[in-house]
Glycine zipper 2TM domain-containing protein
Amino acid sequence: MPTQLPTLLIPGLVLMLTVAACGDTRTQRAATGALGGAVAGELISGDPITGAVIGGVGGAVLR
């Protein structure tokens, strides 16, 4: 199973950051990124909190 993690992780992160970039304001992008990160974190490693933090920061910073 650990060999499949990178193949799942990269598309999940790309999708999360793409969706996070759709907001009009920094707050919207952070919220969308946190939601996408929580879903990706739960599916990939069973840790939605870490995923939400990474997604929220990524959505707020990247643009």
